[in-house]
Amino acid sequence: MIVLGLSGLPNSQRRLRETNPDIDPLDARITQGLDSAAAIVVDGVLVAAASEERFDGDKGTGALPVQAIAWCLAEAGVSADDVDVVAHGFDYDRHRRAFVLNRAYFDEVLSSQTVRDALTAAGFAQLAEKLTPVEHHRAHALSAIVPSGFDRGLAVVSDGMGEVDSLSIFRFVGTELEKLHTQPIASSLGILYSIGTRFLGFQFNNDEYKVMGLAPYGDPSRYREVFQKLTRFDHDKGSVVIDWPSGALSDAEHGYPQARALLEEQTFTPAQPDGSIQRDEADFAASMQECLTDLLVDLVGHWLEKTGETNLALAGGTFLNCKSNQSIADLPALQALFVQPASGDDGTALGAAYAVAEDLQPVQVPFDPYLGARYSADEVRAVLEARPDLQWREVGMTDEYLAAAADDIAADRIIAVFHDRMEFGPRALGNRSIVARPDGDRIKDRINSAVKFREAFRPFAPAVHVDDRDRLFVTRGFDPDHYMLCTAHVRPEAKAALSGIVHEDDSARIQTVTPGLNPTFASLLEKVRDRTGTGCVVNTSFNVKGQPLIMDPATAVDTFARIALDRLYIEGFVVEGTPS
Q: For 195-231, what is each residue's pLDDT tens digit?
């Protein structure tokens, strides 16, 4: 059986722009159906998955993932005619009656027919005929349940909104799901955090990770009462309650102005972000982060206790918040935790495919997120031969090659690495990464200002060899550590050696690297350890501000030539700057 999974709503962004031609760029992502992706499951095995943004360069696009579809089919060695089912990670059709007052919007944006029409227009009429819609939160849940390898447990989904819900709790045995609890959109934790993000002058549904990075610089007590008045956890019902005043969630396409005005009345008038750390903004971020974390810990703890389950699977954009995930991981009732690396809507492409596949096979544990495109040495060489402005040499994927990369890191150079298959999800996990020595001279400032062109307060994450993790960090070692989805405390005695990745609260968003999951990256870290005594590097995504994670050699070489990297290590080639 061959199943193609899809995410995104192809008309959603276009309609938002057409109906709001003067929309503030900070509000341009207040719409459903972003982060479109495709995934393909062949005979019960996940073969490939990729987001459309990696192909077209439009970060977070919700357009029909035409190029991702074509690539998935090619990677699986099948044609569109061979596909048995096309699974789409939204099922608004069952909620048609809820949109009786906005039928035109439903028909143009939300109906499954819009996806069929887009597939047909793109030349995939045979796929359009096979489309099966899948409930959004069911797709999210299965995207975490299946890769977790758990035979049973609790699944929690939290995002901005699905079709009509913002949070769902399932008990599962195998892939059989029992829905225990749901919450309406008015009580959305995702929307609350995104409104706070927009209040601080960052882009809604895109820049929440910046707020998470800002929070440790603030004092959560300063605005704690504001969030305590607005939110609470109902222990009797096991539900999060958000007491927005009537009308606060109206006029979404203009950034929820009434909700933001409410926050301003109770706090302060935020300044335009300039990359610096301002006390009011940092304190607000800290208070909101504390609120989110406390509510999620209460919610998850309640349902673990109520069900007696000890395995937990998480998905939905809320669970890209690694600070909250750390507190969840610390719950004593928990014995195992998995968070889907692509917890945003891109992950619903594979969750939807899992929902309709009838022959799922046991998965590799830990889950392998390297599901994207790979390129041969010949393809890389062809790109480099067309660039007379660069120096390069071919070494091959050898110990000598990795040793040279480790020498550069030990010498406090900043390099990019590009190897094997691209990561699925928003985090770079060593195959499309910029890496450096974690105690390098002014390493955060150098990367932020000259390489990534981003805000100075944003932290960098470490990639650490599994053999070094426990002497450097305090962590329970759950699966999210493999995917930069959970923070860990830096041990006091390791802070000097890790100064470039220790955040203001002595935490770090770690990636534990194992030879089984990524042998090339693990070998590089072993060689770094031989030279520095620590098998750990700064690991940030190979891209610049506003650019998706780099997929292909041409984009990698072009980006390298435009930023202040010392060298690029790409599929056995060592690339330097302009010849002297």
A: 999 999 999 999 999 999 999 999 999 999 999 999 9
**Residue 579 preceded by cis peptide, ω within 30:** no
Q: What is the rounded CA–CA span in Å between residue 182 and residue 167?
A: 5
Residues 524 and 564 in one domain: yes
In angstroms, rounded to a whole number, what is the distance separating the alpha carbons of residues 550 and 524? 20
What does the longest C-alpha to C-alpha distance in the chain come to?
A: 72
Four-CA torsion 47, 48, 49, 53, nearest 10 degrees = -170
CA distance 79 to 64: 18
CA separation for the pair 473, 529 (Å, rounded): 16
Number of separate domains in the chain: 3
Predicted structure pTM score:
0.96
CA 76 vs CA 47, 383, 499: distances in Å? 6, 25, 43
Number of C-beta neighbours around residue 54 at 10 A: 27
Tens-place pLDDT, residues 444-461: 888 887 676 777 788 889
Are both 332 and 350 inside the same structural domain?
no
Q: Which of 45-49, 312-316, 546-550 has the lowest mean pLDDT?
A: 546-550
Q: Which two tokens stand for residue 165?
A: 């819900």
Same-domain status, 334 and 351: no
Rounded CA gap, 580 and 577, in Å? 9
Residue among 19, 130, 81, 576 nearest 352 (CA): 130
By residue range, what is the domain housing residue 37? 2-148+346-356
